[in-house]
Design goal:
mainly alpha
Amino acid sequence: MTKPVAWCTALEAEYRALHGSPAIDGGAPSDPDRLAAVHARIHEHPTTALCLSGGGIRSATFALGVLQGLATVGILGKLDYLSTVSGGGYIGGWFTAWLHRILVRCVYRAASLERRQAAVRALDVGGDRPVADSGRALEDRDEVDRGFRRLKPELRAALVVHHYLGLTHEEAAEVLGVPVGTVKSRLNRATSAMRAELQAEARGRERMATETIR
């Protein structure tokens, strides 16, 4: 049986998830003073929630209009929580899946931009850095990029959200909408495929070098 989580521990985990840093340091989770300190820190950063009630399809249709209205006035992206029940769950489930797809697309764009910036930095040798080393680094990046682009989209997504964004297996599973075991399997398959691709590139370079010498 799973041991119940202390209320203070749950609040601190939620705070870290929202703000990216611990609420406070030191003290035992069950310490009343610590709980009071966590409450005080939480109230320093007010949060907002969108609650979509039930009512079947009509409620879902109304909730869709609410989402569109909040997006129009620029509020939708500032919400911290989404709570749904019954008919509100229809549109809430759609909205969550849509956010996940948007996040993965943004991750792909960010990764592509980072690769382009890395290539530019590699070309800008400058200082006393040897040109050969810069060329080798750029070639390595190109090989990784080629290997990455040859992966299936679901394998690329797993690599990006786990290694690039730094999400845990559980967090990656939530973002991608798949079980944790599937995330681990895709990461293993992607890593093996990338390793095989890089090894094949290295063997190709060795053959070219040998033929040149001959």
